[in-house]
Amino acid sequence: MNKKVPMRQCVGCMEMKQKNTMMRVLKTPEEEIVLDVTGKKNGRGAYLCKSMECLKKARKNRGLERSFKMSLSSDIYDGLEKEFAEIE
């Protein structure tokens, strides 16, 4: 029997992909926005493809802001871009 592969939608390109190929962005209970590399941290998660392009799309279409139901400052996006650049 095949195990079902969990799928998540990228908030940038809006494509459904396998969860393990994506990056989890997390809103912690303290309202902080961080990259969750382990995928296990506590809080509200949104998923992005592991590409800077999708992060830029999410910034433009406010995908993360919709997921977290809050507005994000450009500082937060800049921080995510820095973290992303280190991973890519």
Give the structure's gist in a few sentences:
With 88 residues, this protein is an alpha+beta fold. Helix content is 34%, strand content 25%.
Please describe the structure with a list of short key phrases separated by commas or semicolons.
88 residues, alpha+beta, three-stranded antiparallel beta sheet, two-stranded antiparallel sheet, 5 strands, 25% strand
Describe this structure in words.
The protein has 88 residues and is of the alpha+beta class. The chain has 3 helices and 5 strands. It has helices at 52-61, 63-68, 74-87; strands spanning 7-9, 16-18, 22-27, 33-36, 44-49. Strands 4-3-5 form a 3-stranded antiparallel sheet. A two-stranded antiparallel sheet has the order 1-2. The protein is globular and about 45 Å long.
